[in-house]
Structures are given as structure tokens and as C-alpha cells.
Write a structure and sequence with these properties.
Strand content: 5-15%
Helix content: 40-55%
Distance between the termini: 53 Å
Number of domains: 4
CATH topology of the largest domain: Rossmann fold
Order of helices and strands: HHHHHHHHHEEHHEHHEHEHEHEHEHEHH
Radius of gyration: 26 Å
Strand order of the largest sheet: 5-6-7-4-8
CATH superfamily of the largest domain: P-loop containing nucleotide triphosphate hydrolases
Number of strands: 9
Largest sheet: 5 strands, parallel
Number of helices: 20
Shape: globular
């Protein structure tokens, strides 16, 4: 099922607004995230041709109708999005937010630069005022910083043909489709100055890592070289036994929320809000394979009921359609959970598979409307949107691919427990980046290195006979 990109962006915007609306702490950060998300819808539409812009405005009108919100046909794009996203706020507040976005458009602020711009302008109160000379301090020149990093970067692939073409542009933006296995298809080159400047600005802000644009054999080669660097930097500690072989992901699986390493501060804040403000609302955890969705879902019960017994019921949607329908009916129609006092955590895994059968969606929607306060429903999905009716009933949390820097203390802890220390911390960080943000893949590689070290440094016990066989 395809969802209009504007509607998809709007759902994400509403989720951010809700986090801000319910947050006790970091309210400004949450508000700025909401405004940034809204500007991410507005700025691209403002750059569209007239015909495309009309289609976008039709889509916004449809969203307003679906949400039951009345917006003036005379209102401009910024005011309409402000009313839709912040419908629970006063007219004055909505108007102020609209003016902030209008000023950002007038000043040609790019989407990646919106939050720094908003902070420089002094938040909403400063940014809603029309700019006058002397109002704004000198901004950080991210483009210059990005260009400096590009000059220092060691290119992995050189586009010789492009460089040799007479009249070729000095700067291009390479668009590529990156596959899950790390390989990619080059789709096109873009010469648009604004897009190129935006990309260079992202590099200057440290949001693009130039070192890891790899594919195919090049990726394999760099990964193996980095593995060897980490392995060769291992130092044996006093607690080393050499007895562990594999099983890192199970042995060091998080037992509580504190041990779960989420990919962003925003995800941390959303989970905090859910636990402390609205645990009775269904929770929708989405992200690629190997980002810890199911693991997090299992430990959240301990956060809700640290001193009480509770029951966890898991349902995997990734099975035959008839079995899914049968299990959903058991869960929603003949529900045994609603008649007991013991707290219940219901985890529905692989929820994206629900879209294969409309009947299953029809069964699940009303179930998510209401249930006892001691029953908590958590859905996990690889896709961010499975059904607008289901997503709108849930608190949606993006568990994106892991942040390599956040994982360094955890990896060092695991190695320390195994009696090892990686002295080349730079190589360990590089290896973490090369794993593509998949926790399971990362821990499998760490297992491999630990096992390799143990086999190289542990002598067999006396009397042990080592044999090898070959098949003719």
C-alpha cells in the first residue's frame, strides 16, 4: 500500500508534536524538532512548480478533512501546516509558528539548516519577527567546513569519466539507491547548486561520513582490513579465560531499559514519555531489521512493573495468513487477558505483514481503541506505516539503525567481560560504522573476533586429540 509522501511526513510531524506536547523535560528541544519536521514539509513544496504545488495543496486539504480540522482556503502554506499540526494550540500561537516558517522561506533556509537558524534567531519569539540588519549573529559556515572536509577526504571511488568530460561541473550531487547488503546503484548526477550546497552543509555538520560510501568487493576488503586491525589490537586482561565461544547477543542481551542503546535522543524521549505519561496507549516501534525492536519491547514491561509479576504474550505476524487471522481473533474476540488482574504485555511482531490481508487490519483496529489499564500493546514493524488507522492509534517511535558512537561503551564492556581490550579504539569505531547499523550483524562480528582470539591463544587440555577430516 503506497502512502502519499506528504501524508507520511505529516504523520511523523504529528508524532513529534505529541512528544513535545507531553514532555516534562527538554520541551524546547522537542518543540524545535516539531518545527524542523514541519519545515521539512513546507520548504520542498515551496520550491515546486505551480502545477505540482496545486496537487500538494489538495493533499493538505484532504489531510485536514480526515483530521476534522477546518483551515481557511485563504491561508498560505505555512499557516495551513501550522493549523493542522498544532490544532490544540491557540490562534496566536499557530499564527506565530506560521510566521517562523514564512521567515525561514523568505531567507532561503535549507531544511538541514533550519534548527541552527531557529536557535540563532532566539527561538519562536525571535524567528517570527521580520529580519532587520544587525538582528542575526554570524552563522557557522557549514558549507566552508564541508568543503574543507571534502578536500581532505580520501576518495574511495574517482569519477574519471566525469572529470574528463569537457565542460563538466565542478560540483555534483551523486544520487544512489543503497541496498540492504551495502551495495548501491548510481541513479543520476545533480548539478543544482542548492542541493549540492545542502549536501556539503550536511558534511560540514558531521551528518555525512565520507569514509563509508562503499559497495561490493571494496566494502568486503575494507571490512576485513578493519577486523584485522581490531583483532591485532586485542590485549589480554587479568580476567581472560578464553572459554567463551559465540553467543554474545544472547549472553549480553539487555535485561532492562537502561541497557538498551537507542539510536537517537528523540527515541529516548518518546519511550520516556510513553512509560511515564501514556503506557495505556499502544506503542508502535518501527525500524530496519536488527535494530532491537523486539528486545526493547520485552524489557519495557520491567520498567512498568519493576516489583510486580506480569505476563508477556508474543504474536508473530510473519506466518500463514489463516494462522494470523486465527491468532488475532483469539487475541481480540475471545480475549482471556481482560478478565485477570495480572498485568499483561502483548507484543505483536512483524506488524508490517498485516497489510497482506485487509481482514486482519479490520480486526486489529477496534482492539487498539480500548483495553484495561494493566494491558499494554506493543507492535514492532520494519515499515514506518502499515495503516493510517492503526498508526494514528499508536505512539510511533523510530528505532533507526544504531548510532556507532553510542555503541562504543557497550562493545568495550562486552570485551572487558570476555577478558579483552581493543587498544585501537579508532578501528573499533570504524568497524562499528561498517556494519550498516544492524545490531545482530555487529555482535556476530564481535563473536567472530573473540572466538578467533580464543582459538589462537588457548592451548588444548592434556589428552585432547584434535582431528580433521576431508571428504574425497
Amino acid at each position: 500500500m503506497l502512502i502519499n509522501p506528504i501524508k507520511l511526513s505529516f504523520i511523523k510531524l504529528k508524532a513529534k508534536v505529541e512528544v513535545w506536547h507531553t514532555a516534562d523535560q527538554s520541551a524546547n528541544d522537542a518543540l524545535y524538532e516539531s518545527l524542523h519536521s514541519g519545515y521539512g514539509i513546507i520548504q520542498p513544496i515551496s520550491q515546486q512548480e505551480v502545477i505540482d504545488q496545486k496537487e500538494s495543496m489538495k493533499c493538505i486539504a484532504e489531510i485536514a478533512k480526515e483530521q476534522g480540522i477546518t483551515i481557511s482556503s485563504k491561508a498560505n502554506l505555512c499557516r495551513k501546516i501550522a493549523r493542522l499540526a498544532f490544532d490544540h494550540r491557540s490562534d496566536n500561537r499557530v499564527s506565530a509558528i506560521g510566521r517562523v516558517w514564512e521567515n525561514a522561506i523568505d531567507e532561503d533556509v535549507l531544511v538541514p539548516d533550519f534548527k541552527p537558524w531557529l536557535i540563532r534567531r532566539g527561538g519562536i519569539e525571535g524567528a517570527k519577527k521580520a529580519i532587520t540588519k544587525g538582528d542575526v549573529t554570524e552563522p557557522i559556515d557549514f558549507i566552508t567546513k564541508g568543503e574543507e572536509q571534502l578536500l581532505r577526504a580520501q576518495s574511495i571511488f574517482q569519477i574519471d569519466k566525469l572529470a574528463k568530460t569537457p565542460g563538466s561541473p565542478k560540483q555534483v550531487l551523486l544520487l544512489a539507491n543503497v541496498r540492504k547488503d551495502g551495495t548501491s546503484d548510481v541513479m543520476s548526477f545533480v548539478e543544482d547548486n542548492k542541493l549540492v550546497a545542502s549536501a556539503i552543509s550536511l558534511i560540514g555538520q558531521g551528518k555525512v561520513d565520507l569514509s563509508y560510501v562503499l559497495e561490493g568487493i571494496a566494502l568486503e576488503q575494507v571490512t576485513q582490513e578493519t577486523k584485522d586491525k581490531v583483532f591485532n589490537s586485542f590485549q589480554m586482561l587479568s580476567n581472560y579465560t578464553g572459554g567463551s565461544v559465540g553467543g554474545t547477543s544472547t549472553k549480553y542481551a539487555p535485561e532492562n531499559k537502561a541497557a538498551c542503546i537507542l539510536s537517537s535522543d528523540e527515541a529516548e524521549l518518546q519511550i520516556h514519555v510513553w512509560l511515564n505519561k501514556s503506557p495505556e496507549r499502544p506503542l508502535f516501534l518501527f525500524g530496519p531489521h536488527g535494530t532491537g525492536k523486539s528486545t526493547l519491547a520485552k524489557v519495557l514491561g520491567k520498567e512498568l512493573y519493576p516489583n510486580d509479576e506480569f505476563k508477556v504474550t508474543e504474536m508473530n505476524i510473519n506466518q500463514s495468513a489463516s494462522k494470523v487471522t486465527e491468532d488475532l481473533k483469539k487475541l481480540t474476540v475471545n480475549n482471556p487477558f481482560f478478565n485477570v488482574t495480572q498485568p499483561q504485555i502483548i507484543i505483536i511482531n512483524e506488524a508490517q505483514s498485516l497489510t497482506a490481508n485487509k481482514k486482519n487490519l479490520d480486526i486489529l483496529r477496534p482492539f487498539l481503541e480500548s483495553f484495561p489499564k494493566n494491558v499494554h500493546v506493543i507492535l514492532t514493524s520494519n515499515d514506518p506505516i502499515i495503516d493510517t488507522g492503526i498508526n494514528s492509534r499508536c505512539l510511533n517511535v523510530n528505532l533507526g539503525r544504531y548510532n556507532p558512537e553510542r555503541w562504543q561503551p557497550r562493545l568495550k564492556y562486552i570485551l572487558d567481560q570476555e577478558g579483552l581490550k581493543a587498544n585501537d579504539s579508532g578501528a573499533l569505531l570504524k568497524l562499528t560504522k561498517l556494519m550498516g547499523g544492524d545490531i545482530r550483524v555487529l555482535l556476530t562480528v564481535i563473536d567472530e573476533l573473540i572466538t578467533r582470539y580464543n582459538l589462537a591463544h588457548t592451548k588444548p587440555h592434556a589428552g585432547t586429540i584434535l582431528t580433521a577430516s576431508t571428504n574425497a
